[in-house]
Design goal:
The protein has about 290 residues and is an all-alpha fold. Helices cover about 55% and strands about 0% of the residues. Helix 3 packs antiparallel against helix 4, helix 3 packs parallel to helix 6 and helix 6 packs parallel to helix 7. The protein is globular.
Length: about 290
């Protein structure tokens, strides 16, 4: 393209930024872009990749937490519809997190081993924001608080989220307020424990899915929750495979068994009855009886 063909600077473009807000200042880019501090000596080329991938992951986690807390507030106030867009956004954030693994997967074992030692005992397992997301979604485990006891602020925040109703708990409480027969032991349970599947909840969801006309908002909420749960399962599976690709069956830097530990997390479902109900919806097929919960 010749100079005469290049678009000229439009007359309305601001060029004098004295005493004005700039893009860099608004985004605090000086701090963001100078927050990468490789520790390898001499600095290994691929350590920058490793740091930026994990920093951007934490930024996405921050947004997921921001959105989930808003969704929780809407559900507590019996406003399901505003949470639909929020959960759709969370699903798309999860898609970004899933795609990021493909970038980290370009790190080969021979490259990573050259700077892995500088991590010491640090590990993504210690991410406060990751644990917050897990607790808000319902994957509760009090023992995991001990990893954060050294940080009183983080410990207090995580403890509060551990002991509070999760997104799923709040949805079930909402259904109860609508007159649906959510079992009392589900509503009054110890929220610091992970939710266990209950046949009574499966039946409630079966009623919602088989009578969508009178339960459209609850039906839509169920599908939004399944979207998020499915994306999270894909993220866990991709995480496991990238770790396997980069370090094989070595232990994790934070003391976990590495791939062995991640394999145990792949089958976790935040909202088990929303998966189980798919088996009992509708009439039996191909002459085989459909198992219904009792």
């Amino acid at each position: 393209m010749s100079e005469s063909q290049r678009p000229a600077l439009e007359s309305g473009v601001v060029t004098d930024f004295k005493d004005k807000m700039t893009y860099g200042r608004y985004l605090d880019l000086d701090r963001v872009l100078n927050a990468q501090h490789p520790l390898s000596e001499p600095a290994h080329h691929d350590e920058m990749l490793f740091i930026i991938i994990h920093q951007t992951t934490e930024l996405w986690f921050k947004l997921v937490i921001h959105e989930l807390r808003a969704a929780l507030a809407h559900i507590r106030a019996d406003r399901l519809e505003p949470s639909f867009k929020i959960l759709a956004r969370v699903k798309h954030i999860q898609a970004q997190l899933l795609d990021q693994w493909s970038v980290l997967a370009t790190l080969t074992p021979s490259e990573y081993v050259q700077f892995r030692h500088v991590l010491g005992p640090s590990s993504g397992f210690q991410s406060v924001q990751f644990r917050t997301v897990e607790f808000l979604m319902g994957n509760k485990n009090r023992a995991l608080l001990e990893v954060h006891r050294h940080d009183p602020v983080a410990y207090a925040q995580l403890k509060a989220d551990l002991e509070a109703p999760s997104l799923y708990d709040e949805f079930l409480a909402h259904l109860s307020r609508r007159g649906m027969p959510v079992p009392r032991d589900v509503l009054a349970r110890d929220f610091s424990q992970a939710h266990e599947s209950h046949p009574g909840v499966v039946e409630i969801f079966r009623g919602i899915y088989e009578n969508t006309g009178s339960n459209w908002d609850a039906y839509e909420m169920c599908e939004k929750l399944v979207d998020v749960d499915e994306q999270y399962a894909l993220w866990r599976f991709r995480h496991m495979n990238v770790v396997w690709r980069v370090i094989g069956m070595k232990s994790g830097t934070g003391g976990t068994s590495g791939v062995g530990f991640l394999q145990k997390t792949v089958g976790i479902r935040f909202f088990p009855e929303l998966w189980e109900v798919r088996t009992v919806i509708g009439p039996p097929t191909y002459g085989l009886p459909t198992r219904r919960s009792t």
